[in-house]
């Protein structure tokens, strides 16, 4: 059995089935026909090795020494060097004869490789399915930052934002979804946002807010309202209230500890986390 972690494999009759039929189920196999006496094919080998190393998670380079493997050369019908064929799921999906530049090779590979954000997207889904919504949010945000036009990344990040209590983030993300993409998944996420909004308007929170409106200088009450807001997934409002206290008195009660706990509870990648970390650092230092 071939080593799945290998970037380059010398293809022969013995490992042909494993590499071409089995390994290609999980990775794109670049079959490269070359010979040491053919200078263009020797030169292009290093370029392919570099590209394979850059895409090691998705690519295996299978090199065929044409003088040593005539049966494989015949099976693929190769007539000139260098010749490159891309194999996926046991079948050729692309190929070309003759030397190619690094840019040309990269463009050809890009047609058949996962998008840069795809691996992060899949990791985020896995984390969400495992119940780790904080990690799912972080991974989904990384995928989204790579390609904000990927609507699946946007939907997943919005979903994670709801689950981690970042309703304002979810609303901002969904507000930019184009009409053509407003499908059943879109409707489902919007429904979750609406339900979360309704749940946030608890009688207890409303009562505390009314109490604060009548006593706006009560700092202890402000901390209570901030905690209630955070529990209602209104984190930004909660942090704004806490910073009103800290700007007035940095060492008042538990305000600083509550603020730091609230910031640290935000998932990595959430813009609020970096925003309020900068604000707290400016106060502390």
From TrEMBL:
Source taxon at top rank: Bacteria
Protein name in the entry: Co-chaperone YbbN
All residue ranges annotated as the Thioredoxin domain in the record: 1-114
Organism: Glaciecola siphonariae
InterPro entries registered for this protein in UniProt: Thioredoxin-like_sf, Thioredoxin_domain, TPR-like_helical_dom_sf
